[in-house]
């Protein structure tokens, strides 16, 4: 049976393609989501949500309880600031894979801290757009093992 998975993207990720391409690459978010659907094949059914608004991201996480088996989540800069998103993730008890295009640990010190990591099943960071594909593979493998 195909796993239902939410691909959730936070602030400024709608600008991928033109946003700091030397850091984030030239793929748009639509390119990334298309590639994810292709690599998932019939193993997963994906829904994608991007929001620049912390409250909308929290609501998307809450709503995922009603339909999703897990979440691939790039919280953008909220990674480093949001206890509310951390509480949403721990509150819904769905497996979440924290995902970053860049290697946040090789960047500015304020990006080294994540409020989310401790409540996620794992983290993928630093592989550009491929971070999402790797995160999806990891989540499908995790769900298959349950
Ligand atoms: C990011 C890393 C964050 O530090 C940054 O604020 C982003 C993108 C990444 O995918 O590398 O917006 O989550």
Describe this structure in words.
The two termini are about 15 Å apart. The longest helix is centred in the last third of the chain and has 15 residues, at about 130-145. This protein has helices at about 20-25, 30-40, 55-65, 85-90, 130-145, and strands at about 5-10, 45-50, 70-75, 95-100, 120-125. Helix 2 (about 30-40) runs parallel beside helix 5 (about 130-145) and helix 3 packs parallel to helix 4. With about 150 residues, the chain is α/β, with parallel strands linked by helices. 1,3,4-trihydroxy-5-OXO-cyclohexanecarboxylic acid binds next to loops.
SSE layout:
Layout lengths: L2 E7 L11 H4 L4 H12 L3 E7 L3 H11 L5 E5 L8 H10 L3 E5 L21 E4 L4 H15 L2
Parallel strand pairs: 1-2, 1-3, 3-4, 4-5
Total strand count, please? Answer: 5
Distance N to C terminus = 13 Å
Radius of gyration: 14 Å
**CATH hierarchy: architecture:** 3-Layer(aba) Sandwich
Question: How many structural domains in the coordinates?
Answer: 1
- Annotation field: number of helices: 5
How many strands, what sense, and barrel or not for the largest sheet? Answer: 5 strands, parallel
Query: Can you give the mean pLDDT?
Result: 97
The 3D shape can be described as globular
Low-confidence stretches: none
| Sheet/helix structural class | alpha/beta
Helix content: 25-40%
Q: Write out the strand line-up for the largest beta sheet, numbering strands in chain order.
A: 2-1-3-4-5
Ligand roster: 1,3,4-trihydroxy-5-OXO-cyclohexanecarboxylic acid
Order of helices and strands: EHHEHEHEEH
CATH H-tier superfamily? Dehydroquinase, class II
The first-level CATH class name: Alpha Beta
What is the third-level CATH name, the topology?
Answer: Rossmann fold
């Amino acid at each position: 049976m195909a796993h239902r998975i939410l691909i959730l993207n936070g602030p400024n990720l709608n600008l991928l393609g033109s946003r700091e391409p030397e850091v984030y690459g030239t793929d748009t978010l639509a390119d990334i989501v298309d590639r994810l659907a292709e690599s998932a094949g019939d193993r997963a059914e994906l829904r994608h949500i991007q929001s620049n608004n912390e409250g909308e991201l929290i609501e998307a996480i809450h709503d995922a309880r009603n339909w999703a088996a897990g979440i691939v989540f790039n919280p953008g800069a909220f990674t480093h600031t949001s206890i509310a998103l951390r509480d949403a993730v721990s509150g819904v008890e769905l497996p979440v894979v924290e995902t970053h295009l860049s290697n946040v640990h090789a960047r500015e010190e304020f990006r080294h801290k994540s409020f989310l990591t401790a409540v996620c099943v794992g983290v993928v960071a630093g592989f550009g757009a491929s971070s999402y594909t790797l995160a999806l593979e990891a989540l499908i493998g995790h769900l298959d093992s349950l």
